[in-house]
Specification:
Pfam families: Acyl_transf_3. One of its GO terms (molecular function) is acyltransferase activity, transferring groups other than amino-acyl groups. With 469 residues, the chain is mainly alpha-helical. It has one domain. It is built from 19 helices and 4 strands. The strands form 2 sheets. Strands 1-2 form a two-stranded antiparallel ribbon. Helix 10 runs parallel beside helix 12.
Amino acid sequence: MTDALVRSPGITRVVPAARAAASEPRSSGVARDPSVDAIRVALLVVVFALHAMMVGVSVGADGPVLQNAIEHQAWFAPVSWVVQIMPLFFIAGGFSSFHHWRSMRSRGASGAEYVRARLERLVRPAIAVVAVVAGSLVWLAPAGLAPELVATAGFRIGQPLWFLGVYLATSALVPLMVRAHERARMLTPIVLLAAVVAVDALRFSTGIEAIGFLNLLLVWLLVQQLGFHLADGGLDRLAPSALWGVAAASLTLLAVLTVAGPYSGDMYVNLNPPTLCLVVLGVAQLALFQLARPRIRAWVERADASRLVSAVGERAMTIYLWHMPVLVALAGGLLVANAGAGLALPEPLSADWWATRPVWLSVAAAAVVPVTLLFARFERGRAHRPVPHAAPAASESRPAARSAAVDAVCGVAGIAVVLVTGFGPVQAVIALALLAVALRGSTTVRAAARSAVPTRPTGLRRARSRAGT
């Protein structure tokens, strides 16, 4: 096998083809940046650990209690500046989406094909988790579990789904936002920033909290746009001193916004709804990540961690979607053990509770592994060969674009149903129907594209077969 030339912003190197193939998603056609892949895995670990620490199980005067153990804790606000990593998650996603879409576009794919490819990758695991979780909760209610406890479990499981819904929406807009980046590299984020500030100002001045949820799209589109700036190599031209200055200025501005301004110092309060603070935090995280990229690349190569990073990366959405159901199931197991075997459950945040956290984290991590291996097939799907195109497409049909937009809206709406209303049987059926529409569109267009690819004349195929080509 020949060697592969791998290029990414700030690095060009030759690696053995077998190793390059092992570190690539199947049929992506896009050179990977090991620092971005590694940081996405690290961020996923942080999310899992944080959510595991939030699980508080105890027995109160009125019976079993399942709660967020660190919610409304004053000491958590400064900690949240470190563990609120969603901005960097969307920056890394923007980096990957930028390269993925430009690679597909260079092969002649349309924006609609890109959107449907992303829908297929993201909707499959969503269908699996909605179906299994809803079925399990429906079964638990008549099994004797208190209805309010079942409702709480459904709420806790559904909380992380906001990320999937927003990620679906921002991914569907990647072709449009990349075009805006290419035509107005600086103006695009400035316009988005002005819109974010306007939404926050209107929300605070009117006291209408619902206005803030407009930033569910605006904030994360802006942060995704930062990932485009990382992907196009623009940050590689900045000196380390300039990056340190950007990080320091961003954190200083964040301090002003939270101490003297109207924003909470807890970055998780600023997540719901998203505010300007997450954008400022994202700029700081981007600068610090850019400074750390050479060291992260060196570590991946020195530790030969590319296979591990690739294996986790291919299952990242499955891990994200299933870690909370696993945590809630384990919490339910503790309650059962308490009722049946008298297992002592320490009060959340007590000294005994903190002492048991290492064991809890280890058990939770071990439990997530087999669940991920079982359900990862829905995320990875079947290996698809890329559909060849004669030349880069200058435009795409309006019906195809409209159809892809409808599919994307159905996908986001399907997630929103269970996120807002819970995993009840009626809600689950509605959500699954919407997700099925989104998935059906992506699989239908892929099949149509394959059937439209012209085949070689039979004589030519036989001649090349005899020639060994």
